[in-house]
Design a protein that fits this description.
Structural class: mainly alpha
Radius of gyration: 15 Å
Distance between the termini: 40 Å
Largest sheet: 2 strands, antiparallel
Number of strands: 2
Order of helices and strands: EEHHHHHH
Helix content: 55-70%
């Protein structure tokens, strides 16, 4: 279980086999495939990562609102497209809660490489904009 803050809102996320069912029932797809798809193409798909974060919140507390309502509960003033901190928090929670065994080492390394490449690209882009 991970207590953290996403877009200035405290959330508690927990991963378990139940999380896969929560995700499938809400979004009609496989959570593992969704996580892989979220990192394809170089830029993480925040909409998929937020869906996974919601499924982990719902795993922890079955009383969490449906996905659309849950998103509306975030303060719009706290939202920033490309918020690296929100991405980092969700990615860390996914890694810690869903990929915590040795058997998942390959996927964790793959995700880490993707995140490293993304961080470098974002840093270079920020340098171009600010420099």
């Amino acid at each position: 279980m991970i207590k953290t803050v996403i877009y200035d809102r405290e959330v508690t996320m927990q991963g378990s086999p139940y999380t896969f069912l929560v995700y499938r029932e809400a979004f009609g797809g496989d959570l593992f495939k969704a996580v892989l798809a979220a990192y394809e193409g170089g830029t993480p798909d925040m909409s998929i990562l937020l869906q996974v974060a919601w499924a982990m919140c719902r795993t922890h507390d079955g009383g969490v609102s449906d996905y659309a309502s849950w998103l509306r509960e975030f303060d719009p003033k706290s939202f920033a497209l490309g918020d690296a901190r929100a991405l980092e928090v969700i990615d860390s929670a996914i890694s810690a809660e869903l990929f915590r065994r040795e058997k998942t080492g390959r996927i964790r390394k793959w995700i880490a490489r993707r995140m490293d490449a993304l961080a470098k690209r974002l840093g270079a882009r920020a340098d171009r904009i600010l420099g």
